[in-house]
Amino acid sequence: xxxxxxxxxxxxxxxxxxxxxxxxxxxxxxxxxxxxxxxxxxxxxxxxxxxxxxxxxxxxxxxxxxxxxxxxxxxxxxxxxxxxxxxxxxxxxxxxxxxxxxxxxxxxxxxxxxxxxxxxxxxxxxxxxxxxxxxxxxxxxxxxxxxxxxxxxxxxxxx
Length: 159
Prior knowledge:
By secondary structure, this protein is an alpha+beta fold.
């Protein structure tokens, strides 16, 4: 696992980010819904800074990405980390990279004093649901929003 590193996405990663988005959409059977473009992503991510991207590399090759942004909880009076997408290429799944990614993002949420770490998962994604629940995430609704409380974020960040 020491050969797995996480780094911030850069402008030079725009094409790679779009490729990962398209691969994820294809995996989920919604590739027809991808309308993102390189120029649109470049503007949103690197000029407007609407979201952030973390690239996972294994043996110096990109193997996945996470795209996230901050939301806000009025009840907590704090920002949260909202994970829009996390993707690991198929041939690298089952190696603990997903757990490592969630640990990395949990540490980031703690560093930024986030009160929550949330994401959505399609209900038919049983393997995803099982993985999230194993980490301590709580099902929230029909589309199933998952949330890690600060306690669970702390636990996961120490893996």
